[in-house]
Structures are given as C-alpha cells and as structure tokens.
Design a protein that fits this description.
- The structure is a single chain.
- The strands form 2 sheets. Strands 1, 2, 3, 6, 7 and 8 form a 6-stranded antiparallel β-sheet that branches.
- Helix content is about 40%, strand content about 15%.
- By secondary structure, the protein is of the alpha+beta class.
- The protein is built from 7 helices and 8 strands; from the N terminus they run αββββααααβααβββ.
- One of its GO terms (cellular component) is plasma membrane.
C-alpha cells in the first residue's frame, strides 16, 4: 500500500495565494468604481451644460420676439401720433411675457441725409464731432465724390485713382449711399470719426434740410451759424414748449435754408427687450409712412437685430 500525503490547514489560517487574489479583485473593483464615477460625473456636467445652453437659447428667442412685439407696438403708437410736434417718443417700459421691453421712436428728419444734404451740413457735422476744418473739408469732398455720378475729383476729394493709390480693392462708388455704414468705405474715414458722426446721418429723408425740433445737439451744431450757446438755448426752449404743448419755438437763425419743420415720413424705431439675468435683445428698424394709403399706414424698410 502507498502512503498518501495530506495537508491540513489550521483553523483561522488563509493561504497567501487567496489573500493575493482578493487584493487584486478589490483594486479592480475600486478602479471600475472610479472610472464609473468619472463617466457619470462627466455625463452629469454635460447634461447641465446642455440644459443651460437650451435655457439660454430659449431666453434669447423669447427676448427677440418680445423686442419684435415692442417694434410693432411702437409703430401702432406712432400711427396715432403724427401731430407735427416733432417729438422723440420714449414709451413706458412694457412687459411682454417675462421680458421688459423699452421702445424709442425718432423722426429721421432730425438727421442729415448723406445723399441729398449740401456740403455745408455734412462738413458742419464732421466739425461738430471735433474734426479740424481742413480734415473735415477733405472728408466732405471725399463723401461728395463717392455719391456723385461723375469721375471729376473735387479739390480735396477722392476718385478712383486715389483709392487705387491707397491700395484698396475698390474705387469711388459714384452713386448714392445704400446705408450709413457705407460711409466707412470712403477714403480715409477714420473708424473713431465714423462712430462719432454715424448717429447724425441718415439715407431715409431724401431731403436737403433737417427738422430742428427732433435734431440732436450734434446735428444742430452742424447748421452754419449755430454756436454752442445758441444750441443750448434752443434745446432748452424746445423742451419747454414740448412739455407745455406749445408750438415749436422760433429757430435762432431765422430764414435758414437748412431747416424745415416737416415731420417724417421716415422714423427709426428701436426696441430693447430684457429677460432679467438671462437674455437681452435689441431690434432697430426704419419705417416709412405710406401717404398714398393714409398717414397711419407704415412700411418697414430696414430691420436689424442684435442680441447682446
């Protein structure tokens, strides 16, 4: 008979190989848990980000449409408010859904038309913005050369050869301005100078004169003969007559060929909508009264929007 070798294990004793296998399994489980935690955390963070983006997108859309509603509300108000007072109307803040909307209506006759205004008004506006006379004259001649239909260069102006010499890939337009922003393409128009004068120009009135009852101080200062003191006195008298419902005050320069007291037909309508702590949207539009269909009938001829 052969002898059989037996191995006995004392109570409470665990073999070393079992302990090693258990440790490896524990480490693996811990790594899996760590990886799952990272994955779940990432998914949760991505979900929160997507939810936030969706809320922001929704708020932006709501703000835009609230501003759009403000535009049409202002046009409705304007339809019944063409009494010739030449006023700049700031409506009370409206609530459209969860948005606060402020609208402003401004008569474009208070601005200088780039396509029809005489050089005196254009030069005067540039000077009123702080540009020296020589530079203002040069820019004015360049503007006039841009809008006229010929290739004859004014004394300080700029025609096709001047644009080529400056290394630009375009020439003088020799046609009317299609927008006020186009003024930036005129030779040597400085960006900072454009920002100063852009609010005083328009292309919508098709008139050579301005209505002083709705003109900003900078535009009033552009009128030949107007001084800083005269501008201040006139604005004070204008606001007083407006507040009391009186007719427009006499203009300091009686008989000036640069003024009119006619309103419209073009108006700028601005609307700003804000959803507190979430979104803001702004819409700028230009509307024109269609007098063939009645003074209360308006057509929108320009529209731009900017969330910010």
């Amino acid at each position: 008979m052969g002898l059989e070798k037996t191995t006995s294990i004392a109570p409470g004793f665990r073999p070393m190989w079992n302990i090693h296998e258990t440790g490896v399994a524990l480490i693996a489980v811990l790594w899996i848990l760590a990886i799952l935690t990272i994955v779940v955390t990432g998914i949760a963070a991505q979900t929160r980000t997507e939810q936030r983006l969706a809320r922001n997108l929704l708020a932006s859309e709501q703000a835009y449409h609230a501003a759009e509603g403000g535009i049409y509300y202002a046009i409705h108000q304007l339809s019944g408010d063409q009494g010739g007072s030449g006023k700049k109307l700031v409506l009370s803040t409206l609530r459209v859904g969860g948005a606060l909307v402020t609208t402003e209506v401004t008569d474009e006759r208070g601005k200088i038309d780039l396509n029809t205004a005489p050089d005196e008004l254009i030069r005067g506006l540039i000077q009123a913005a702080g540009v020296e006379l020589d530079e203002a004259s040069r820019l004015t001649d360049a503007i006039l050369d841009w809008r006229d239909g010929d290739s004859l260069r004014r004394l300080h102006g700029a025609e096709d050869a001047d644009y080529r010499l400056a290394g630009l890939n375009y020439e003088a337009k020799d046609a009317e301005f299609d927008s006020v922003d186009e003024l930036q393409r005129v030779l040597d128009m400085p960006p900072e100078g454009f920002e100063l004068v852009r609010g005083g120009f328009t292309i919508q009135t098709h008139a050579p004169d301005i209505n002083p009852m709705v003109a900003a101080p900078l535009v009033l200062a552009a009128i030949p003969g107007m001084t800083e003191e005269l501008v201040s006195e006139y604005i004070e008298a204008r606001e007083a007559s407006r507040a009391e419902g009186l007719p427009a005050p006499a203009f300091p320069l009686g008989g000036s060929p640069y003024i009119t007291f006619e309103n419209g037909p073009a108006y700028r309508v601005d609307a700003r909508a804000e959803i507190p702590s979430r979104a803001v949207a702004r819409i700028c539009s230009v509307v024109v009264a269609d007098r063939r269909r009645g003074p209360a009938d308006f057509s929108i001829i320009a529209w731009s929007s900017s969330p910010y």
